[in-house]
Write a structure and sequence with these properties.
It is a single chain. This protein is α/β, with parallel strands linked by helices and 312 residues long. It has helices at 50-58, 80-83, 101-111, 117-125, 141-153, 171-186, 222-229, 247-252, 270-279, 294-308; strands spanning 10-21, 24-35, 39-43, 65-70, 86-89, 159-163, 190-195, 207-212, 215-220, 233-239, 254-256, 260-265, 284-290. The protein folds into two domains: 9-227, Rossmann fold, CATH 3.40.50.300; 232-291. The protein is built from ten helices and 13 strands. The strands form three sheets. The chain has a six-stranded mixed beta sheet with strand order 5-6-7-3-8-9, sandwiched between helices. β8 and β9 form a beta hairpin. The longest helix is centred in the middle third of the chain and has 16 residues, at 171-186. Adenosine-5'-triphosphate (ATP) is lined by residues 21, 24, 26, 44, 46-52, 91.
C-alpha cells in the first residue's frame, strides 16, 4: 500500500485557486484539503464549480491562479505513476453498450496494468458479479454507475474523485454506494464527492464544502456547519389539557393540533427551554425536538452568500 495513505497524510491541497474560462470565473479563491481516510463533499447547484475543481485535481486543466497539489505533486505534470493513484468516476459514465461488464472492466484493468483477478474482485465489490457477462446495453443506469465506480476503484487509488455519483440512483442504491465510499475511506483513501444534495451526506461526509458560483460559502463537518448557522431549534410540546398548560407555554408557544404548542429557540437556549418544559411535570404529555435539516442549512448558507454579494 502506498505511503501516501498513512493516516492523516495530505492527499489533496487546493490553495487560493481560481479558474477562468475567458470571461467566466468558474472557480474563485477556493482553498480546500482532504486527508487520507477522509471523505470530503463538494456541494453546490449547477455551475457552482464542482466539476472544474475535480478537473483541476485530475490535472486535466490548470488553475489561472493559486496552487493544486495531489499526493504532494502537481497533477498537471503528467506523471503516469502519480495518475495511477487517482480514481475518477465522471458525472456521465458512457460505456460501449455492446460489451459485457467483464470485458469493459478488463479493458480498464489492462490500461492500469492491473491483474485480471482484480476484475472479478471489483465486480463483486460493487455487486455486479452476476451481471458481469451481460452486455451493459441491457443494464440499468444504477448498474452502469456501479461499473463506473468499479473502474474508479482499480489499482486501489489513494484519491477517489466521484462526480455526482448518485445522480439517477434510487435511494437503496445511493445507500449502498455511500456505504462503499465509507469503507474505502476507512481503508485510508481520500474521497472527494460532488453532489447537488446536501441531505444525502449525513453520516457519509466528514467535511462538506458548500460552493456557489465558484466560491466557497462555508466548509466544515455538518455539526460545525449547524453550529455556525445558529438556525433556530423547534420544540413541540404536547400537553394533557391545553387549559391547564403552564402559563408561559400558552403565552410563548403557537398552538397546533389542539393539544400541542410549538416553540423555537437558539441552540444555546435549548437545555434551558427543556428544563422549563420538564418543570411542567404532569401537565406535559410529550416533547419533540427538531434540529434544522441539512436542506435548511444549505438554504441558509446560499441565502447568506447571496446577501453578501447583494444579489437578493
Ligand atoms: N470549458 C468551459 N468553457 C467555458 N465555461 C466553462 C467551461 N467549463 C465550465 N464552465 C463554466 O464554469 C462554471 C462552473 O462549471 P462546473 O461544470 O465546474 O460546475 P458544476 O458545479 O460541476 O455544475 P453541474 O452541477 O451542473 O455539473 C459554469 O458557469 C460553467 O458554464
Amino acid at each position: 500500500m502506498s505511503t501516501e495513505r498513512t493516516a492523516g497524510g495530505r492527499i489533496v491541497d487546493v490553495v487560493a485557486v481560481a479558474k477562468r474560462y475567458g470571461p467566466v470565473e468558474a472557480v474563485r479563491d477556493v482553498s480546500l484539503a482532504a486527508q487520507a481516510g477522509e471523505c470530503v463533499a463538494l456541494v453546490g447547484h449547477n455551475g457552482a464549480g464542482k466539476t472544474t475543481l475535480m478537473k483541476l485535481m485530475l490535472g486535466l486543466i490548470r488553475p489561472s491562479a493559486g496552487r493544486v497539489a495531489v499526493l504532494g505533486a502537481d497533477p498537471a505534470a503528467r506523471d503516469p505513476a502519480a495518475r495511477r493513484h487517482i480514481g475518477f468516476l465522471p458525472e456521465n459514465v458512457a460505456f460501449n453498450p455492446a460489451l459485457t461488464g467483464r470485458e469493459l472492466l478488463g479493458f480498464y484493468a489492462r490500461l492500469k496494468g492491473e491483474p485480471a483477478g482484480e476484475v472479478d474482485r471489483l465486480l463483486g465489490v460493487v455487486g455486479l458479479a452476476e451481471a458481469a457477462d451481460r452486455r451493459v446495453g441491457t443494464w440499468s443506469k444504477g448498474m452502469r454507475q456501479r461499473l463506473g465506480l468499479a473502474q474508479a476503484l482499480l489499482a486501489q487509488p489513494a484519491l477517489l474523485l466521484l462526480d455526482e455519483p448518485t445522480s439517477g440512483l434510487d435511494p437503496a442504491l445511493r445507500g449502498s454506494l455511500y456505504g462503499l465510499v465509507r469503507s474505502l475511506a476507512r481503508d485510508g483513501a481520500g474521497v472527494l464527492i460532488s453532489t447537488h444534495a446536501l441531505s444525502e451526506l449525513e453520516g457519509v461526509a466528514d467535511r462538506v464544502v458548500i460552493l456557489d458560483r465558484g466560491r466557497v460559502l462555508a466548509s466544515g463537518s455538518l455539526a460545525e456547519l449547524r453550529r455556525l448557522a445558529r438556525l433556530p431549534i423547534r420544540v413541540r410540546v404536547t400537553v394533557e389539557e391545553p387549559a391547564t398548560a403552564p402559563d408561559w407555554l400558552r403565552r410563548e408557544g403557537a398552538r397546533v393540533n389542539g393539544h400541542a404548542f410549538d416553540l423555537t429557540c437558539a441552540p444555546d437556549d435549548k437545555m434551558a427551554l427543556l428544563r422549563r418544559v420538564a418543570a411542567g411535570e404532569g401537565a406535559i404529555r410529550d416533547v419533540e425536538v427538531a434540529v434544522p435539516t441539512v436542506d435548511e442549512l444549505y438554504a441558509h448558507f446560499l441565502a447568506r452568500g447571496q446577501d453578501r454579494e447583494g444579489l437578493r
